[in-house]
Design brief:
- Strand 5, helix 5 and strand 6 form a beta-alpha-beta unit.
- The chain is built from 22 helices and 13 strands.
- The protein folds into four domains: about 5-90, Gyrase A, domain 2, CATH 3.30.1360.70; about 115-165 and about 270-340 and about 355-375, Rossmann fold; about 170-260, no CATH class; about 405-580, Isoleucyl-tRNA Synthetase, Domain 1, CATH 1.10.730.10.
- Helix 4 (about 90-100) crosses helix 19 (about 505-515) and helix 11 (about 275-290) crosses helix 12 (about 325-340).
- By secondary structure, it is an alpha/beta fold.
- It is globular.
- The strands form four sheets. It has a four-stranded antiparallel beta sheet with strand order 1-2-4-3. Strands 6-5-10-11 form a four-stranded parallel beta sheet, sandwiched between helices.
- The site of arginine has 8 residues, from strand 10.
- Its EC number is 6.1.1.19.
- Keywords: Aminoacyl-tRNA synthetase, ATP-binding, Cytoplasm, Ligase, Nucleotide-binding, Protein biosynthesis.
- Its main location: cytoplasm.
Length: about 600
């Protein structure tokens, strides 16, 4: 495990040295380095510095260049325009740096063992309810952030804050008491395992039937309300039935997460009910400290800057006037648990942007109560809405929310058709077609979600998602499989770095991009921006396409060049594979 400094950071350092040697009076200054089309990098920092020192920027630039000691990395530094520096890296430095990356399991990406602890709240569906596309986003973005943060060294604790508590359980449980066989399984009778589909269809049926009764039968309504009280009081029979709903729902959740090729672990599922025994105390602490006040019987927290359309303040209601606790009380208790017991230094919430106000109020309340302080960062990684092709929130023709499983199945079907077409050429068995169909279909859905900035809405368009051309996961998966195929066909020739060779422009461009992997990951982790990783990988695949056009691999001019090109594409494959794995997307060997 050896982290490899990027060429950009090496250049940055050399320039900074040159700057302080030539212009000690300027103090530490940023050379403002960026990638450039004219050379490999351009530095613009001298312009601002010249202004500050009231000097001629071109002259200063010339002095800086002269002050940079001889070295193997910088092949050429040229002063251009009003005082920019155009910097070209030596071919040997590029290949040597990449060889150092290739020699490391982690591709030279730094690992910080003393990073903090992030508790991440993601993949939080609701018990007894169907999962929809909003739950998809939270799960997909959250899972990618877990992998990315862990890869950088952060300790990550996962929390699936499922909606497993609330008044609707009174109605459901009461109905089940009155119709005891409603949750029995047909499949179990036959000794088969219960499928997620069956579990959900049971729950759906129960939900609809109990709702109908609740709305039409006053006496049932009264019994259902009394059942809520029993549930909250911890009555044993009531709790046991509640547990059956939770367990039944988990069968369904797990089936969806498995379809999503996602690893969700039972101990990490700590739903709203997990904080029940903290709620009372949370309210007491808030009230005693004066952070919350009683208003019309309810326990409320007020904010100067949060007002409704009528100009009246909108409070965060921690406890309702009937004594019931809501969503906010649970989230506040969860903060106490995550900071106090789990020792989080960061709380990350992957939740729909429409819950932004809720989290703003919850975080502010926790800060006032001292549960959050300067040492703990709380952040909502807010995501936008999934839209249909028509640009409106995604609904079925009947106006119902679209079931996530139906979408996933359709994506897999479409992808399987795409894979099937290339079956002969790739030499795939039927099983491989089915497996790749799943990897391509699920990858397509994940990638579409991850490749736009989370907070933006995006259109769920399966045609676009499984397209072989364009910014799609299958384009990246093909790029990977193509490299693997070339490596298999290389026979005796093995990938080997040859720093003595001159590089073609496409090799340089791809090489410099490969070298940026660690820097991009650091930015992605820091900004919670997985779309920047997707963009990086797409650019890498684009560089690869240009490289293939210009640089024959197996038919290279010399044996050394062939080995060096095999080395370049192998590192590209590893980078693609690693990057896609962080996004939760598989890269089949043959496609
Ligand atoms: N279950 C909620 C929903 O479906 C999301 C929970 C978000 N997490 C939280 N700590 N409030 O909208």
């Amino acid at each position: 495990m050896a982290s490899v400094p990027s060429l950009a950071s090496t250049v940055q350092q050399r320039l900074a040295e040159g700057l302080s040697a030539a212009l000690p009076e300027a103090g530490p200054a940023d050379p403002l380095l960026r990638r450039s089309d004219r050379a490999d990098f351009q530095a613009n920092g001298i312009l601002a510095l010249a202004k500050k020192l009231k000097g001629n920027p071109r002259e200063l630039a010339t002095q800086v260049v002269a002050a940079i000691p001889e070295n193997d990395v910088l092949k050429e530094i040229e002063v251009s325009g009003p005082g920019f520096l155009n910097i070209t890296i030596s071919d040997a430095a590029i290949v040597e740096t990449l060889a150092a990356r290739a020699a490391d399991d982690r591709l030279g990406v730094p690992f910080n063992p003393s990073a903090g602890t992030t508790v991440i709240d993601y993949a939080q569906p609701n018990v007894a309810k169907e999962m929809h596309v909003g739950h998809l986003r939270s799960a997909v973005i959250g899972a990618a952030m877990v992998e990315i943060l862990e890869f950088t060294g952060e300790k990550v604790v996962r929390r699936h804050h499922i909606g497993d508590w609330g008044t609707q359980f009174g109605m459901l449980i009461q109905y089940l008491i009155e119709h005891p066989h409603e949750l029995d399984h047909k499949a179990e009778d036959k000794g088969a395992e219960v499928s997620g589909e069956e579990a959900m269809s049971n729950l759906n049926r129960l939900y609809k039937a109990s709702r109908a009764l609740f709305d039409s039968d006053e006496e049932f309504k009264t019994r259902a309300r009394a059942r809520v009280v029993d549930l909250q009081a911890g009555d044993e029979q009531t709790l046991a039935l509640w547990q059956r709903f939770v367990d039944e729902s988990k069968i369904y959740f797990y089936s969806v997460f498995e379809k999503l090729d996602m690893d969700i672990r039972d101990p990490d599922i700590v739903g709203e009910s997990g904080y029940n025994d903290m709620l009372q105390e949370t309210c007491r602490l808030l009230e005693e400290s004066g952070v919350a006040v009683r208003s019309e019987g309810a326990l409320c927290v007020f904010f100067d800057d949060i007002k409704g359309p009528d100009g009246n303040p909108v409070p965060l209601i921690v406890q309702k006037s009937d004594g019931g606790f809501g969503y906010a009380a649970t989230d506040l208790s969860a903060i106490r648990d995550r900071v106090g017991n789990l020792k989080a230094s960061t709380l990350l919430y992957v939740v729909d942007a429409r819950q932004g106000l809720h989290f703003k109020m919850v975080f502010e309340t926790a800060r006032r109560a001292g549960w959050l302080n300067d040492e703990v960062k709380a952040h909502q990684l807010a995501f936008g809405t999934v839209l249909g092709k028509d640009g409106k929130p995604f609904k079925t023709r009947e106006g119902e929310t679209v079931r996530l499983v139906d979408l996933l199945d359709e994506a897999i079907d479409r992808a399987t058709a795409v894979v099937e077409e290339k079956k002969e050429k790739a030499g795939l068995s039927d099983e491989e077609v089915a497996e790749n169909g799943r990897y391509v279909g699920i990858g397509a859905v994940k990638y579409a979600d991850l490749s736009t900035s989370a907070v933006r809405d995006y259109k769920f368009d399966l045609d676009q998602m499984v397209s072989l051309n364009g910014d799609t996961s299958v384009y990246l998966q093909y790029a990977y499989a193509r490299i693997r195929s070339i490596l298999r066909r290389a026979g005796a020739a093995k990938p080997a770095a040859h720093p003595e060779l001159e590089l073609a422009p496409a090799e340089r461009a791809m090489g410099l991009h490969l070298d940026q992997f660690g820097a991009v990951l650091a930015e992605v982790a820091e900004e919670y921006a997985p779309h920047k990783l997707a963009a990086y990988l797409f650019q890498l695949a684009t560089h690869l396409t240009t490289f293939y056009d210009q640089c024959p691999v197996l038919k290279a001019d010399t044996e050394e060049q062939k080995e060096n090109r095999l080395f370049l594409i192998e590192l590209t494959a590893r980078t693609l594979h690693q990057g896609m794995a962080l996004l939760g997307i598989r890269t089949p060997e043959r496609l």
